[in-house]
Amino acid sequence: MDRFKILLLPSVSLAFGILLLMLITFFLNSWPIFEREGLAIYTSNIWRASEIPEEEFYGILAAIYGTVYTSLIAILIATPISIGLAVFVVDIAPRKIRELIVISTDIMAGLPTILYGIWGIFVLAPILSNFMVFLHDSFPFIPLFSYRNPTGYSFLTAGILLAIMVTPFATALIREAYAAIPPIYREGAHSLALTRYEATKLLLGYIKPAILAGILLAFGRAVGETVAVSLVIGNSFNIHPSLFAPGYTISSLIANQFGNAFAYSYMPHALFAAGLALFFIGLAVNLAGVLVLRRWRYA
Amino acid sequence: MKVRIGAMALLGILAVVAFLGCVSEPTKPAEQKPVEQTKQVKIYGSGASFPAPQMENWISEFSKVNKNIIVEYASKGSGAGINDFKNKLVHFACTDPPAKESEWREFEKIGKPLQFPFIVGAVVVVYNLPVEDLRLDGETLAKIFMGEIEYWDSEEIKRLNPDAKLPHEKIMVIHRSDSSGTTEVFTTYLSMVSKEFKERVGAGKLVDWPVDKLGRGFGGKGNEGVSAMVKQTPNSIAYVELAYALHEKFKMVSIKNADGYFVKANSETIAAAVSASSAFVPDPFEGYKEDPKMFLNAKGKNSYPIVSFSHVLLWSSYPKDEAEAIKTFWKWVLTEGDKHIVEGYVAVPKEVADLALKAVESIRGE
């Protein structure tokens, strides 16, 4: 083995080692809850704490549901916006505007999330509450609107807030990839007399993997957001198809309960199991991403 | 892919660093060396948010007369306070309901605990509705908090408020999302007045609210979090500690007491409930023997039904300097404290304070 490889060894082993150690920690710490409840921790919707250990029972289904639901809303909103922003910045915007957008999205990406949370609870939730009541009253038969919520604490509010938080993130990635397309492709597209729209569509096809990576990272960030979400989602163990219903997410559950978890016998283990669920969600999403990438590569 | 693995590794490292940071950060009293020159001693407490406004007032008054002792209190819920106390992260912890026997046995594994009540407060039901002087009884409250009563203008509520203009709006129920003594006091009361609540929900610091599953339940963190949500949410109902309701100027429900009168919480009605019940307080060294239902649903025309002690947990010995500081502070609270009571609280009866004083005197420095 040459020296250069040995030099790189620590960072590689550190990366995998930490990942492995984290997994082991989470697994060992959540084991007591699996032993006691089996998979019911993931398949039931109960959060019953008690000083008497025999009476404790935890099921985080509502939080898993809320996590996936809000993150999906977030990337559904964030994806088209970030692609649009990236194309605008690279192809269309005059230099001054481009710099302004780049700087402001970079600042947005770096803001502490609690700022988004406070803005969400005082501005976004009240605005959305009127809108949600209006939509419900006008179209009560649509399942997505089937819940009348005048409070503003809902999956949708959390999803929109998350979308705002992850858009700069996804935009930066997609923008860099789009700008890095060799000019020859761009010139080629235009020399074929394609319209601007057709050319853009073609060029975006080249950076599909980067777009996917941007979406995956955005999803990962949305899944893991704690404070901001816990301020606007309503912290309610509720599973409901409507966008407007209140709910919970795994991250906000952990943020809410960790402070007092150790006062109970099984709650810490339940929270570790919740963490493990987050890990699995992340893993599943990333695997799906890898599979899609592979298909594109062979296509 | 490479970028992603790199980013993941970086995130992993950050997470571990953050985690280690969190673990090592809390100041362990044992490691706190008082500064020699000024002889300043810091004592830390954490726990219930129920007595927090009163604690803050006492601490600021106390610091005026005792410049060398700095007291800090972190309001984070009874459950978290008991946990901090057990791990010796704090010198004292406040909890609303007295510690359970199982918790007490845990404490005894690491030292000799003592507990006594130091302030009386009330849990009030607040609402955000353009209706003045809403009246409810215990059973209706239980039904509302279980989600069985869906609309503000339903029969059960109308019957108690024949003249009020109740809107046909869904009731939004806001409760605590963290482990809280306020919740335990409130659910203990509801379990006393409603058999159904006792069976379906029960009493505890953290209960599984059936109303959540109906989509009308919301959780807020701390009395502060719940207050913020009530303010933002029309047609909502919630329970908070009285001092928070007064501070936020919330509308409070008049609750029907054991004698059938509708009573709002204030210093007089709390004092009436305390004097109507026999305050049996066990020896502070056997604090877990206290009955948490003592003042709940008290008899008497003027008694407010949801009244409770808030308790403090102390160890019977500390390192020398700290023992002196803790004794000084708690002696001051028990003797001078009643001159600085915040609106919404009532001082503990004299005989209870005397008993507690004896226990504080017995704290040793080593």
UniProtKB/TrEMBL annotation, chain A:
<protein>
    <recommendedName>
        <fullName>Phosphate transport system permease protein</fullName>
    </recommendedName>
</protein>
<dbReference type="GO" id="GO:0006817">
    <property type="term" value="P:phosphate ion transport"/>
</dbReference>
<dbReference type="InterPro" id="IPR000515">
    <property type="entry name" value="MetI-like"/>
</dbReference>
<feature type="transmembrane region" description="Helical">
    <location>
        <begin position="210"/>
        <end position="233"/>
    </location>
</feature>
<keyword id="KW-0592">Phosphate transport</keyword>
<keyword id="KW-1133">Transmembrane helix</keyword>
<feature type="transmembrane region" description="Helical">
    <location>
        <begin position="153"/>
        <end position="174"/>
    </location>
</feature>
<dbReference type="InterPro" id="IPR035906">
    <property type="entry name" value="MetI-like_sf"/>
</dbReference>
<keyword id="KW-1003">Cell membrane</keyword>
<feature type="transmembrane region" description="Helical">
    <location>
        <begin position="270"/>
        <end position="293"/>
    </location>
</feature>
<dbReference type="GO" id="GO:0005886">
    <property type="term" value="C:plasma membrane"/>
</dbReference>
<keyword id="KW-0812">Transmembrane</keyword>
<keyword id="KW-0472">Membrane</keyword>
<keyword id="KW-0813">Transport</keyword>
<dbReference type="GO" id="GO:0005315">
    <property type="term" value="F:phosphate transmembrane transporter activity"/>
</dbReference>
<dbReference type="InterPro" id="IPR011864">
    <property type="entry name" value="Phosphate_PstC"/>
</dbReference>
<feature type="transmembrane region" description="Helical">
    <location>
        <begin position="57"/>
        <end position="90"/>
    </location>
</feature>
<feature type="domain" description="ABC transmembrane type-1">
    <location>
        <begin position="64"/>
        <end position="289"/>
    </location>
</feature>
<dbReference type="InterPro" id="IPR051124">
    <property type="entry name" value="Phosphate_Transport_Permease"/>
</dbReference>
<feature type="transmembrane region" description="Helical">
    <location>
        <begin position="111"/>
        <end position="133"/>
    </location>
</feature>
<comment type="function">
    <text>Part of the binding-protein-dependent transport system for phosphate; probably responsible for the translocation of the substrate across the membrane.</text>
</comment>
<feature type="transmembrane region" description="Helical">
    <location>
        <begin position="7"/>
        <end position="28"/>
    </location>
</feature>
UniProtKB/TrEMBL annotation, chain B:
<dbReference type="Pfam" id="PF12849">
    <property type="entry name" value="PBP_like_2"/>
</dbReference>
<comment type="similarity">
    <text>Belongs to the PstS family.</text>
</comment>
<keyword id="KW-0813">Transport</keyword>
<dbReference type="GO" id="GO:0035435">
    <property type="term" value="P:phosphate ion transmembrane transport"/>
</dbReference>
<dbReference type="InterPro" id="IPR050962">
    <property type="entry name" value="Phosphate-bind_PstS"/>
</dbReference>
<dbReference type="GO" id="GO:0043190">
    <property type="term" value="C:ATP-binding cassette (ABC) transporter complex"/>
</dbReference>
<dbReference type="InterPro" id="IPR024370">
    <property type="entry name" value="PBP_domain"/>
</dbReference>
<dbReference type="GO" id="GO:0042301">
    <property type="term" value="F:phosphate ion binding"/>
</dbReference>
<protein>
    <recommendedName>
        <fullName>Phosphate-binding protein</fullName>
    </recommendedName>
</protein>
<feature type="domain" description="PBP">
    <location>
        <begin position="38"/>
        <end position="335"/>
    </location>
</feature>
<dbReference type="InterPro" id="IPR005673">
    <property type="entry name" value="ABC_phos-bd_PstS"/>
</dbReference>
<keyword id="KW-0592">Phosphate transport</keyword>
